[in-house]
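Data deposition worksheet. Section B asks for the primary sequence of the deposited chain exactly as it was used as input, without tags or linkers unless they were present during the calculation. Section C holds the resulting structure in token form. Section D is free text for depositor observations; keep each observation to a single sentence. Incomplete worksheets are returned to the depositor.
Section A, Depositor: J.P.
Section B:
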Amino acid sequence: MEKLQLFVQCFRGPRLYHIYKQSMDEYGASVDYTLEYRTIIERWCDILFDSYSWAGTIIKYLSPFIVYNAYKHGLESYIAIGRVSVVPLISVYFFAFIMRGTVRFFTPPYTEFLVSYQTAHRSDPNSESGDKIRKTLLKQYEFDFNSWHPDFVASFSADKNRVGLHGNYSIPILLQPFYYFVATWIGKPLAYPGSTYLINAMMRSHLDHGRINHVASKGAKRAKLVTSDNNNIDTLFVDNRESGSDKGKKLVITCEGNAAFYEVGCFEYPLKEGYSSLGWNHPGFGYSTGIPFNNADANAIEAVYQYAVEKLGFDPSDISVYGWSIGGYPAAYIASAHPEIRNVIIDASFDDIVPLAIPRMPEFLESVTVNCCKKYFNLHNAKLIEGYAGPIRIIRRSRDEIISTNGYLNGNRGNYLLQAVLLSRYPGLFADDDVRMKLDEWLDMANVTQRQPTVPRFDAAFCKRHIQAHPNPPYTGLGEGLNTDEKTMIAYYIFSRILTDCEGGHNDPLPPKYFKEPWSHAHET
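Section C:
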């Protein structure tokens, strides 16, 4: 009876990709390595199943044209195609299904995995023994993420007031289905191409290889988080707290770009500097589920933050957030929602997505573009970051071709993000019209060498004295009683410490020298 049950379960069991093993090297040290599990037959069966999924996705995206063509020319041709193809397609699928299940049953590594998986499935995830069984399973096997048991369930959702901030739109009720169609079929592939089936399928082997390498070489721990809106978020954590360095005791949560994944993305940056690192994929990216609308992305980073504090045991004051490109939105959100975090680094990001979206769409669709962005892709980084007063570093790429509206430095939307930070924190300095003119002048320049001559009587000691007088936020009093030249000096001092100019384009890897902790007023005391 047990053999029969095991045989049946082999047909329904999750895909098993790799088995983690340990061996001894010539010096007697333990060495981690992986074995790819799948047999040739199982691999080809999986390819066939994936091909069916590909075909279904293609038909889904072509469905508007198919419906239009059927309306114009009738259903006869589609009925004829169905009669010829349905029976062979079902037969091939059924044969592959039987073949894969049978091969699994006669392959001991898979049956051993399946027994362990079923044992973990029946155990209580909230008990100590159940948690130990699941950790042992995950340590030994790399298998289909959809079959994982949740490692953490978020206890509350993102702050709706922050998510909806600056999101005023005008969409009649009758047109809401049309806007949802535009958002999911046009807006999502443009704003978040990494969430499309095509990109995910193309990247799948690279993602698996990158993640397995982290697990085998760095002892990374993968976890499945469930958000408040029931999306599953794929995360990876490398713990360097036992390294003996102060940096290892600090955690950096990395937020990837619109076509990037933690497996092959900026998750590496903190690790190279010795920090502990926690990476995650946006909803719909890799093995994460959902659609990356702004509310889903905010719920995802909220779940990641809760996991870091409640499950991984990091104090909020030891958590930093790094956001690259569109990842600047979840970074800005978590900073405003949890201002007690250590610091924030925003790299190659923007103030608001609307000014970037409008030029990329036909002019006659401007109102549709604006309303769609405000409702579904309300990435208002500047408004969010105004609610955070802690240490921040903004990295601007000198040849950023993605977030510039005109292709030049003065069209870089990161300039507006920096202006929002400076004006909201230091109104006593940057509300001065002459200082604002100087700020615009500095932003048009590519580096410190070009800017320094614009402040001829610069006195660093004078600036430090006044900054030391305002060690803690709010800094609204900084600049009171000073003339324009004195305000300009302090404004330049602060500007040059918050902004980091980085040579390169939008998608160039960040050189390690630029990944450093943000400046703060405390550094001057």
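Section D:
Residues 24-31 have pLDDT under 50 and may be disordered.
The radius of gyration is 26 Å.
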